[in-house]
Structures are given as C-alpha cells and as structure tokens.
TrEMBL record, chain A:
PROSITE patterns: ABC_TRANSPORTER_1, ABC_TRANSPORTER_2. Pfam families: ABC_tran. InterPro entries: AAA+_ATPase (IPR003593), ABC_transporter-like_ATP-bd (IPR003439), ABC_transporter-like_CS (IPR017871), ABC_transpr_TagH-like (IPR015860), Bact_Polysacc_Export_ATP-bd (IPR050683), P-loop_NTPase (IPR027417). Residues 48-273 form the ABC transporter domain. One of its GO terms (cellular component) is membrane. Keywords: ATP-binding, Nucleotide-binding, Transport. Gene3D superfamilies: P-loop containing nucleotide triphosphate hydrolases. Belongs to the ABC transporter superfamily. This is ABC transporter ATP-binding protein. One of its GO terms (molecular function) is ATP hydrolysis activity.
From TrEMBL, chain B:
This is Transport permease protein. The keyword Amino-acid biosynthesis does not apply. One of its GO terms (cellular component) is plasma membrane. Residues 64-291 form the ABC transmembrane type-2 domain. It is a multi-pass membrane protein. It comes from Micromonospora carbonacea. Belongs to the ABC-2 integral membrane protein family. It comes from the Bacteria. Keywords: Cell inner membrane, Cell membrane, Membrane, Transmembrane, Transmembrane helix, Transport.
C-alpha cells in the first residue's frame, strides 16, 4: 500500500499539469471467481450423477477459478496504466470487472461514468454480412440509428476489409481471423469513451492496420480520462503508459512507474526460464 | 517531491471513502427499475435490429433463404393434414384441420420463444462480456424473432382457414389483440427462463419435456371437450386457466365458426388472457432485472 501511494505521487510529478488528482477508478480488495462447468468430465456417468443427487453432494464438474484475488489500487484522471503479467494472471478478468461486465464476488470496484472495454472479442453474428455486424455492434454500444448510418462507411473503410473486393457484404464466417478481428476492433473504436480499457487490441491485424489502430488509440486516449492497456508486448506498454500494474496469479505484485515495473517483470520472467 | 507540499487531502481515506468523496459509483451497479426501463427503451433499435438479424441468420445457410419462414408452417400443416385429416379422420370436431393448425401455430410461438429464451443469456456470453447494454434486450429480441415467425405463420393460417371453408368475418380482427397479449406473456416468460437458464444450464435439457407437457395440457392436438369429460371438475377449472389454452381458444374463437371451447364464457377467457399477460409480462421483467449484474459471470 505504501509503495503504491509513493508510486502514484511519482506519476503526478511527471505530469505537472494535473494539480488536483481526481480518482476515476477505485478498486478496493476485488475478488473475481469464475464458475466453470466442465461438461462430460471424469466421474460424470449417469450412475455417478444419480448417486450425487441421492447423497446431495455437489457436482465435481463445477470448478471454481479464483481469477482475481484481492486487488486494490486507484487510478486518476489523465493516467495511462499498463497491465502486465503472464498468461492467465487475471488481467482481462480485472478489466472486465472494472468495466462492470463481470461482477466482483468480494470487495468493490468504483468508477466515474461508464468505462468502456475496447476488446476484439465483441462476437456478433457470423452468418451475417460485415455491414450488418457493424450496424448491430454500434447499436449495441448505444448509438442512435442516424449516427450508425453515418458511421458505418467510415468503420468499414477504417477496418480495410474492402481492400480485396467487396467483403463488407459477405457473411463474417467467410472472413479470415485477422479480417474479423480488424472489423471488430474498428466497431469498438468508433465510439468516444470516458474511461477506456484496451485489451490486446493493438496486436490485431497486419502492419498497416496496426499503425492505423495505434493512431486511433492515441486519439481515443486524448479524449478519455483514464486509459488501461493490457498487453504482452512490453514495447507498446512502454510507449503508451507512464504507470504499470503487474498482476501475477490474480495478485497485485507491483504498481509503479512503467520503467521500474517492467524491469522487475523482465527479471522475473527471465529467472523463470 | 514536488507535491508533498500540497498536503494530500485524500491521505488516510480508505478506498471506499475515497470513492464516495469523488462521487464514484460501483461498476456495473444495477439501475433502479424505472431507470432500467428507460435504458431498455433507448435500446429499442438494437432489440429490433438484433431480432431481425437473428431471423435472417437462421435461414442464411438454406438455399431458399427466408422463403422457409412461410414454407416451414406450410409443411407442418401438410404433415398434420396427412395424418389427422386423411389417415385418422376426426369426426367430433368440425373443420379439424383449421382447429389443429390454429392451436399448433399459436402454441409454437410460445414454445420456440421459451426454448430460445432459455439460451439467450448463455448463448450470448461473448456479447455480454464485451459490451454494455441492458441484458433484457437479448430475451426480448428472442421473443421478437419468434413474433415475426408467427406473423408469417398467421398468413399461412388465414389461407388454410379460408380454404377449409370458414367464412371471413369481423371477428377475425380479434386475432390481433390475442397475439399481442400472447406476445406480452411470452416477453415475460422468455425473460424469466433466460435468468433461470443462465443459472442452471440443465434447464435447456428439461425444457422440451416441460413444453410437451404444456402442449398436451393446452388442447392443441385433440378436442378440448376431452378435458371436461375425463377430468374432475376442479382439475378442469385449472386447465381453463392455463394461459396457452386461453390464447389458443381465443384465436380459435376468432377464426372458426364451430370450434369446441372449454372456457364457458368469452368474458372469462379474455380476463384470463389479460391477467396472464400482465402478471407474466411485469413479473418476468422484474425477475430478470433483479439478476442484471450476474449475467456476465456465466
């Protein structure tokens, strides 16, 4: 906790234009537990299931995954915060909890306004053409139909799916995985956001698209109060974030200036090898 | 350090106090019922677009495309005509084919809406975990998709009823309030089963049996007079109040001349129809709203 407060103060020093620090996201001892149904795992024969019902024991095929274990921190207006950690350390889960999409089991997450999660997994309907998916995605983000009609050509243009023929009118199941991810990112990035949470979105697509999307994220950052960025590419965290939070196995391991945290994280991952 | 001189006014506050001081809200907090209703109304375009999209997507792999919207009920009616009209000819009910298809199409609306509603949360977890919108949009869109199917079925039904020799009358207009009330009932039902289905995945397996039992209790395939003949009086009173039986009876009463009815007076049937629509519509909505925060967890 002490380390955390010092770290935040250092950030304020590097950003002298912020006189009063206004918190936008306050995470207080948050725990998130997933319940996973394992379907037909071992010991799920009908006889075993019947035995369980008779003896009133709970099913062994429901496992609980404690993804985030008591994380606390405060994010302030004007900050860009990187979230790093190994695979499965709870980064994406934490972002979903901040976005209010996944309820916390214990503790609390307080936010200013409605944070938006900019992910590439906004799965829509694969049987429908790209254009229809753009329309649906925009409406699902709460846009008015007039704005949707105005923005649709821009979004398709930005995604670049029409670079090789008229793909926008083909069903999304005919797209390559990169094209589909590009379109989904373009839909999500079309809206203005208060608190912006970005989940691995910068890694989407080919080089040309990556450049365009980095530019777009920079624009979105300028408009947003606070930006969170989850990424495995440490270079993009270093470029965009001045503060970094390191999660390991659902526990907050370190919170401070990006340079320090990245150095510690790199030492940690090198020692593991 | 530069800002130690500022004397941080927030020092010593707990996280919760800090949040309260700056007026932060709990993330994903459930809005009040009035606010939720208002947000849902703001998302009406999404509901409409999503239900349309689902309808189009369900036929997108078939070569005949949306023609199946009409072909499906038509084929259904042809099969039942073959069995009940030609093979097992029913004499007790005048115009049995029209009697049967009316019951089938009306029941089918509720049946498929409930089936799809059960999966409307579990089947859309990707969307729920990615975007923010009132979750009631999903079961409502599932209901609306089936409502559009019903409209196509009703066109077929009107054709069948006319061909089988029923006269066109003003009473046919009563069909409109009947299906609207049924749609309200179904909206509540899909929201209720959507919440249950999101908690208990097994409901999807149980649903077909529940729905089949319900169908037999609604007098779809045989004369409703059989209930009165075979059941004790109190049990018949219960069957009379069965919402599906009520909606089917009202539709039959509107379209057919000599259809046997179980409810003794039309006033009783209409009050059941309105009562069920309001109770289920409002009750299902409140029940769904109370679980709003939990749907992302899966």
């Amino acid at each position: 906790m002490v380390e955390h407060i010092e770290a935040s103060n250092d950030v304020t020093v590097t950003l002298p234009r912020i006189v009063e620090r206004i918190p936008t996201v306050v995470v207080d001892d948050a725990h998130v537990i997933y319940r996973v149904h394992q379907g037909a795992a071992a010991g799920t024969s009908p006889v075993a299931a019947l035995k369980r019902i008779v003896s009133r024991t709970s099913a062994p095929n429901v496992r609980e995954v404690h993804a985030v274990k008591g994380v606390s921190f405060t994010a302030y207006r004007g900050e860009a915060i990187g979230l790093i950690g190994s695979n499965g350390s709870g980064k994406s889960t934490l972002l979903r909890a901040i976005a209010g999409l996944l309820p916390v089991n214990r503790g609390a997450v307080y936010t200013q306004g409605q944070p938006s999660l900019l992910g590439v997994n906004a799965a829509l309907l694969n049987d429908l053409p790209g254009e229809r998916n753009v329309m649906l995605g925009c409406l699902a983000m709460g846009m008015q139909p007039a704005d949707v009609a105005r923005l649709t050509p821009e979004i398709i243009e930005f995604s670049g799916i029409n670079e090789r023929g008229d793909f926008a009118s083909l069903p999304m199941r005919t797209y390559s995985s990169g094209m589909a991810a590009r379109l989904r990112f373009s839909i999500a990035a079309a809206k203005k956001h208060d608190v912006l949470l970005i989940d691995e979105a910068l890694a989407t697509g080919d080089k040309g698209f990556r450049k365009r999307s980095e530019q777009r994220v920079r624009e979105l950052r300028e408009g947003a109060g606070t930006v969170f960025l989850v990424s495995h590419q440490l270079s993009s965290v270093r470029d965009t974030c001045e503060r970094t939070i390191w999660l390991e196995s659902g526990v907050l391991r370190m919170d401070g200036p990006t340079d320090e945290v990245l150095r510690a994280y790199e030492d940690f991952s090198n020692n593991k090898k | 350090m530069a800002n130690t001189a500022l004397a941080d006014p927030d020092a010593g506050l707990t996280q919760a106090q800090l949040a309260a001081r700056y007026g932060l809200r709990v993330a994903g907090e459930r809005p009040s019922l009035a606010e939720y209703t208002r947000r849902l109304w703001a998302y009406r375009h999404f509901i409409a677009a999503y239900s349309n999209a689902k309808l189009v997507a369900s036929f997108s792999n078939a070569r005949l495309g949306q023609l199946w919207q009409v072909l499906t009920p038509l084929t259904n009616a042809a099969v039942y005509y073959l069995i009940f009209g030609l093979v097992l000819e029913q004499k007790s009910i005048p115009n049995f084919i029209a009697y049967l298809t009316t019951g089938l199409f009306i029941f089918n609306f509720t049946q498929t809406a409930a089936q799809n509603g059960t999966q409307s949360i579990t089947g859309n977890l990707g969307l729920i975990r990615a975007l923010h919108f009132p979750r009631a949009c999903l079961p409502l869109a599932a209901m609306l998709t089936q409502f559009q199917q019903l409209i196509a079925s009703l066109v077929v039904l009107v054709g069948i009823v006319l061909v089988t020799g029923e006269p066109l009358s003003v009473e046919w207009l009563l069909l409109i309030p009947v299906v609207l009330l049924q749609a309200l009932f179904n909206a509540g039902l899909t929201m209720a089963v959507a919440r249950m289905g999101s908690k208990v995945a097994d409901l999807k397996q149980v649903m077909p049996f529940l729905l089949r039992t319900w169908m037999y209790g609604s007098g779809v395939l045989y004369s409703v007079a059989l209930f009165e003949q075979n059941l004790p009086g109190w049990a018949t009173r219960i069957v009379e109040a069965n919402p599906m039986l009520v909606y089917i009876e009202l539709a039959r009463h509107a379209l057919l001349e000599g259809a046997p009815l179980l409810n003794s007076s039309m006033l009783q049937a209409w009050s059941y129809a309105v009562g069920w629509a309001v109770v289920m519509g409002v009750g299902g909505f409140i029940y769904f709203w109370r679980g709003e925060q939990e749907y992302g967890r899966g």
